[in-house]
Amino acid sequence: MKLENKPIFHRLLLSSAFITALALRLVRLGAMPLTDMEARIALQALAVGQKTETVLGGHMTYVGLTGFDFFLLHASNFLARFWPAMFGALIVFVPFLFRKQLGHWPASILSFILALSPEMVGLSRVIGSPMIAFVMLLLAFGLIIRKKPILSGVSFALALMGGSGFWTGIVLIGFILLAAKVILKLSFHDYLDEFFKHKDDRLKFLIAFGLTVLLVATGFSLAPEGLSGVFSGGVDFVRGFGMPYIEPFVLKPLALAAYSLPAVIFGIWGGIRGLIKRNKLDIFLLIAALAGFIYLLLYPNATPADIIWVTLPLWTLSARVIAAVWRWPEENKFVMVITVVMVVVVFAFTLLAMRSLVSPSINTEARLTTFIALAGGLVLLIALVLLVTYGWSEDVALPGFLMGLSVVVLLGMLSLSVRTTSISLERTHESWYPQESSLSTQWVKISLDRVLEWNKRTTMPVEIAVADFETPGMRWVLRDYENVVFVPYVPPSSQPGVLISDTLTQPEISNSYRGQDLVWSQTPDWQGMMPFQNLNWFITRDAPETTKEIIFWVRTDLMPDEQFSQ
Description:
With 566 residues, the chain is α/β, with parallel strands linked by helices. The protein is 62% helix and 7% strand.
């Protein structure tokens, strides 16, 4: 028996996929400032860690685990995002649990795809994304099939407390199973009946479920009131039906194409292939993708972050296509290698031409020339496949083309995952949550630290007041500073050492202060973007943006030149 057909080989591949997933999710995890959405949830965890009162929401898995971490360690951006990243990396084990249904090779290929896929990587690095509920719910069902009552109970409890994404998954999975029963005459009762037919298994599941809820929801007894938030995700899900639709509407399908275009292309290929062959598993996956897409478009509170409910079945179809078509020929291996290299080169040339095509600095004549070069690259690619097909064999052409395309997709996914996260030093605009702004917090911290350094020998502490700018992001940035107050306005009788205010707010005491305006946030103008700007964002992740500034005021007597003159 060949090594690649042995279970140990696929377990080694799974380990490699998990290490890759961890690397892409943990490297430079704390480099980017938390958005207001992230900070709002992280502040709940901070309150749990500090044993202070707060209003807890529906993300109790995150709040309980992260709050306990904050109790033991210093709260930081990295630690705040640690658990979403860890849960996100566990997605590679989902195909392993369903390997009997998918096949060993499709499962191994899918694990690597999920480790690298930009939407799976990007959302694992965002606090409040549906990744925790998404991953743990899938693991729970996989563990039920594998007859692991304790682990499935733990996973189901963590999914339940993972946010409204759990209820999204329950509704979608229920609809998909119902559609599969009606259309494909499939029944899934046997799995549940087999799992729960033993009293001991039911008891183990319930005990594991209950203990996990009790420990995690309370932050390991740091916040007993956390039990009230166990089902808050369901309330948030129901409220979502009354929320306004995300604007602009084109962002949802645009995000699906921008982050997962290979999944769409290969997934549709796999779905059509399944329909032709009447393969029930492929048709089931196609139904799942359609159900996720319908939810994405129709549920009012769905955001581009919810594309993962569409991409997972599409990536699964893609893995099955690759495993079925990708074959290494017995003859003409050299021709196969040359075909792969040529496909990679032509695609690289085509992608460079596409990037040049949307450059704002390119003139009309150069754009026409680039467009011709782009069309020429596509023609060359078709000619290459036809030449190999009729010059040698179609047994070399199709696998060679697919292998070359796989290399391109692999490198493209890796590049996009790096470029669209803080792993890269390049700042990009991501559309996961269009209403969220990226914050620039470094200058606020630098300015505060300088003022405190100038006055560290004074006996009186420097009071920091934030006037009419109480945002979660600002509260998170100032979490480690003492003598911080958030007020709607600063009365003339007050004389805080440092004052932070909106540029529209001119405090009455500003005559005794020196101020400096600082950029606080940048927000892409999604609604004002024209079709060409959407295309430019699709390729480069650049978008027109609006900035919000704040004014950093320092009382005059705290400035070093005033201290020197005294």
